[in-house]
């Protein structure tokens, strides 16, 4: 069972690690995925071993809160499909805005109060006489105490969350800030009491010393600067969901339905499956459906990334958020609410942004022990400086600096922010990455296995060549006859023939009889002519002799990657059609890009080896594996993996499911509206292999961004903590003020998030290639080749027959002989009681005489 929770109280990577560890310890929990970025947690668990309540209690025990996702609760309560994606997004944004408004309010109050506090405490150092001098010492101390207390009140969440986590042995970044600021405040309060006592006993020297050691401004500055950093970080993190927000906003708010013979405007969320939706030019499609009336031109760029609008007519599907640029039509709603294509895309992008990449495990391990280690380092710093003879103020300052400069946030944010921005950017290109692990693995792929049909090719065969072997037929006449014969077949090659005939406006007639032999060919009768059509093997089975010219034509077509369809009329070959599944121009460009990256490209196909090798040679592929059944593709992928290769399998996501699941990264191409393919890690919304190249480039950019962030996050802490502890003070006199340390900590988190946001400027090569493609790609031309056949020598034999008494008898004998394979013609002379038989091939005498006997007559001799 899988359940998603909203988690409250998390402020840094240590919080994320604490929650993960607490839930992972529960019996029956199989997987825990906590997202600091979204404040969510996805838990996979065995409901027989644990339950939702136990998970919530485990999180609560360490100082955080967890509640089942509100959308899930609403869905269970209503019994419907739950709140719409728009409603969920609006609720999430409202929550973020409220949190940011509260942070902003507290931050500004702290800043406003910090200004007079700094003037009072630090003014005398820069020549400002604000409550300066011995006479104002106690007044200055009281003012500082009051102002600091108010600031700490506005920033009390550091103490409520931090100290609570510390007590429950799950310290986080708030704990560090609370200890540092609290220590400075308590130390200042103690010194203020000492100063009051000194004044009461007239010890002016001690009072003056305590007046300059209050440390209230350090406590106030620490929490204020951290709150400023937190606010800026929150604003930056909000921008990581921009791509998701754009997707949500694509869905129209209202729609027009056809009810009771009139148009009715309703909210898009009120549309039910089966409703008839009316679409006019300029409107966005509110739900998925099938066109029932009219036609339109739809701009699908927002969903599939295709720049060219697509024409849609009756019977074709439409997707949510596509724009009707031209035409008026009606469609029947089939998928509504959270079942629409757009809703599934948003859900996939959102879930992918919440998952963890393998590269994040190092940061998680460090963050899990980081805060306790920092606290220990701070205590050691305090003890070492006291032992070294420094006063308590110096030692405390160094210890506080260690606490406030340490930043587990930078470590924790480096990966999830980049992953969220990266998956959102991929969605803009119609690339749906289902997990952070897939996004990370993509850039390491060194072998790409491509299915041929529908991946490299368009998946729609078309006639490429016409070879005429009957001089009495023109190209159009032969094509019309071939289309008429194939009209009864549902085979893709047959549809290619009939489609070309329709495009040319040729008459397609229905054959008098039709029979198909699976995988071989067809037999039909048209205009009293007996037609046989199929491959060369089928011709051999039917004892139809191919001339040398026909054999040469078949070999030429096969060697060029085409499938030859041979058509014979009355046992004589009339012509051959070369049918091929055309290679996409984008596939050529994508394969060139793969090879430039050093990626080995392998094509898998069920085609024969000759055709496959012709395509491989044309595309300059590294390897081709032909005659492979869908069940054999998984074995090929496994064999490549056993060679220590990182394999990406690209297929249609249905027949290739075993191979997609086996591959290190399974990529379903051209999935259309069926985007929830379980076997694929990446789903491409359009039939474009260049999107695979874009996904690899984006993966490399994301991982590069993460590595840069992690390097600086580690480098910052490795360098910052020793400086704050005063390691370089004896040699260089270098010591870090706690206030500067808190500012540096806040700045590091903001820098990490800002760097991740640069991924929003990623540009795919695909856009430029698509533009050149529209200019250079041409429709395939049909090459017509006329080949005259040479007269083959025909054999004639004469058979003497007894028992014929009328012309009816003669007709029966003729029919019986003509039905024998290899008999080109038969003529019966009733007076001479003989039949003259013309043979196209050598036919045994026993077969000829046996045919006459079966007809009921007596063959006497054959010469």
The radius of gyration computed from the alpha-carbon positions, rounded to a whole number of angstroms, is 40 Å
Bulk shape: elongated
Helix fraction by DSSP (H/I, runs of at least 4):
40-55%
What is the number of helices? 31
Number of strands: 31
Distance between the termini: 84 Å
β content, as a range? 15-25%
Average pLDDT reading:
80
How would you characterize the largest beta sheet?
A: 7 strands, mixed
Question: Structural class, judged by helices and strands?
Answer: alpha+beta
What is the spatial order of strands in the main beta sheet? Answer: 14-26-25-24-15-22-23
In the predicted model, the low-confidence regions spanning at least 5 consecutive residues are 71-82, 767-781, 787-792
Element layout with pairings:
Blueprint: E1 2-8, H1 13-24, E2 29-35, E3 40-45, H2 52-61, E4 65-68, H3 70-78, H4 85-122, H5 137-154, H6 157-167, H7 173-200, H8 204-211, H9 216-239, H10 242-250, E5 254-259, E6 262-267, E7 276-279, E8 288-294, E9 296-299, H11 301-304, E10 310-312, E11 317-318, E12 323-326, E13 329-335, H12 341-354, H13 360-387, H14 392-405, H15 408-428, E14 431-433, H16 436-442, E15 447-451, H17 452-456, E16 457-468, H18 475-486, H19 492-503, E17 513-517, E18 521-526, E19 529-534, H20 536-541, H21 548-559, E20 563-569, E21 572-583, H22 585-596, E22 600-604, H23 609-619, E23 623-625, H24 630-642, E24 647-651, H25 657-662, E25 665-668, E26 682-684, H26 690-725, H27 729-732, H28 738-757, H29 766-776, E27 783-786, E28 795-802, H30 807-818, E29 823-829, E30 834-839, H31 845-854, E31 858-862
Parallel strand pairs: 15-22, 15-24, 16-27, 22-23, 24-25, 25-26
Antiparallel strand pairs: 1-3, 1-4, 2-3, 5-6, 5-7, 7-13, 8-11, 8-13, 9-10, 9-12, 14-26, 16-21, 17-18, 18-19, 19-20, 20-21, 28-30, 28-31, 29-30
Helix pairs in contact: 1-13, 4-5, 4-9, 5-7, 5-9, 6-7, 7-8, 7-9, 7-14, 9-28, 10-15, 12-15, 13-14, 13-15, 14-26, 14-28, 15-26, 15-28, 16-26, 18-19, 22-26, 26-28
């Amino acid at each position: 069972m899988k359940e998603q929770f909203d988690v409250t109280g998390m402020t840094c990577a240590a919080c994320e690690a604490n929650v993960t560890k607490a839930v992972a310890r529960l019996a029956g929990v199989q997987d825990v995925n906590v997202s600091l970025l979204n404040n969510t947690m996805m838990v996979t668990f065995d409901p027989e071993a644990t339950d939702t309540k136990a998970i919530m209690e485990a999180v609560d025990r360490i100082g955080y809160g967890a509640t089942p996702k509100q959308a899930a609760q609403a869905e269970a309560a209503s019994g419907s499909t739950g709140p719409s994606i728009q409603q969920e997004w609006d609720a999430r944004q409202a929550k973020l805005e409220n949190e940011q408004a509260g942070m902003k309010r507290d931050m500004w109050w702290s800043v406003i109060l910090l200004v007079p506090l700094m003037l009072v405490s630090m003014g005398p150092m820069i020549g400002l006489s604000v409550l300066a001098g011995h006479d104002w010492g106690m007044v200055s101390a009281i003012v500082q105490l009051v102002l600091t207390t108010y600031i700490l009140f506005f920033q009390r969440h550091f103490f409520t969350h931090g100290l609570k986590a510390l007590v429950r042995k799950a310290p986080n970044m708030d704990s560090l800030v609370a200890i540092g600021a609290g220590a400075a405040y308590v130390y200042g309060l103690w010194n203020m009491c000492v100063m009051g006592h000194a004044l009461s006993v007239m010890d002016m020297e001690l009072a003056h010393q305590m007046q300059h050691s209050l440390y209230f401004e350090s406590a106030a500055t620490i929490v204020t600067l951290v709150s400023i950093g937190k606010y800026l970080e929150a604003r930056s993190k909000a921008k990581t969901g921009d791509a998701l927000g754009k997707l949500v906003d694509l869905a129209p708010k209202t729609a027009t339905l056809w009810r009771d013979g009139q148009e009715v405007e309703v909210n898009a969320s009120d549309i039910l499956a089966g409703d008839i939706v009316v679409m006019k030019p300029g409107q966005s499609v509110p739900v998925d459906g099938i066109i029932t009336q009219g036609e339109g031109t739809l701009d699908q760029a927002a969903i599939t990334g295709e720049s060219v609008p697509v024409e849609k007519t009756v019977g074709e599907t439409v997707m949510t958020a596509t724009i009707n640029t031209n035409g008026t039509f009606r469609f029947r709603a089939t998928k509504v609410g959270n079942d629409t294509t757009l809703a599934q895309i948003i859900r996939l992008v959102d879930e992918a942004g919440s998952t963890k990449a393998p590269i994040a495990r190092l940061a998680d391990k460090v963050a899990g022990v980081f805060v306790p280690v920092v606290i220990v380092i701070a205590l050691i710093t305090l003890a070492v400086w006291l032992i070294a003879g420094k006063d308590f103020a110096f030692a405390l300052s160094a210890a506080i600096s260690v606490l406030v400069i340490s930043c587990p946030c930078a470590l924790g944010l480096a990966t999830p922010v980049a992953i969220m921005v990266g998956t959102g950017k991929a969605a803009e290109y119609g690339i749906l990455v289902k997990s952070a692990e897939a996004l990370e693995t993509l850039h390491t792929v060194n072998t790409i296995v491509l299915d041929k049909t529908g991946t490299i090719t368009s998946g729609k065969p078309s006639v490429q060549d016409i070879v005429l072997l009957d001089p009495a037929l023109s190209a159009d006449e032969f094509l019309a006859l071939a289309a008429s014969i194939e009209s009864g077949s549902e085979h893709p090659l047959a549809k290619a023939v009939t489609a070309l005939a329709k495009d040319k406006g040729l008459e397609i007639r229905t054959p008098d009889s039709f029979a198909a032999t699976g995988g071989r060919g067809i037999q039909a009768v048209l205009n009293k002519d007996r037609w046989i059509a199929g491959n060369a093997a089928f011709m051999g089975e039917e004892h139809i002799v191919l001339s040398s010219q026909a054999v040469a034509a078949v070999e030429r077509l096969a060697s060029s990657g085409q499938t030859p369809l041979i058509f014979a009329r009355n046992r004589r070959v009339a012509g051959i059609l070369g049918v091929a599944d055309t290679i996409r121009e984008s596939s050529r460009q994508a394969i060139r890009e793969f090879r430039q990256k050093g990626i080995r490209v392998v094509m898998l196909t069920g085609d024969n080896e000759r055709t496959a090798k012709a395509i491989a040679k044309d595309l300059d592929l590294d390897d081709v594996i032909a005659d492979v059944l869908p069940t054999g593709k998984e074995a090929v992928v496994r064999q490549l993996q056993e060679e220590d290769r990182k394999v990406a399998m690209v297929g249609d996501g249905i027949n290739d499911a075993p191979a997609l699941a086996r591959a290190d990264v399974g990529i379903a191409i051209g999935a259309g509206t069926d985007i929830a393919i379980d076997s694929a890690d990446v789903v491409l919304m359009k039939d474009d292999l260049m999107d695979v190249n874009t996904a690899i480039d984006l993966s490399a950019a994301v991982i590069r961004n993460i590595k840069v962030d992690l390097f600086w996050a580690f480098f910052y802490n490795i360098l910052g903590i020793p400086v704050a502890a005063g390691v370089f003070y004896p040699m260089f006199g270098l010591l870090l003020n706690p206030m500067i340390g808190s500012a540096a900590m806040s700045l590091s988190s903001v820098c990490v998030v800002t760097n991740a946001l640069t991924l929003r400027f990623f540009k795919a090569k695909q856009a430029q290639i698509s533009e050149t493609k529209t200019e250079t790609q041409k429709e395939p031309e049909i090459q017509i080749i006329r080949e005259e056949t040479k007269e083959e020598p025909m054999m004639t034999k004469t058979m003497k027959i007894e028992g014929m008494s009328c012309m009816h008898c003669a007709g029966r004998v003729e029919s019986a002989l003509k039905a024998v394979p290899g008999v080109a013609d038969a003529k019966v002379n009733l007076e001479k009681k003989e039949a003259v038989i013309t043979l196209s091939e050598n036919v045994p005498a026993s077969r000829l005489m046996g045919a006459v006997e079966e007809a009921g007559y007596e063959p006497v001799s054959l010469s």
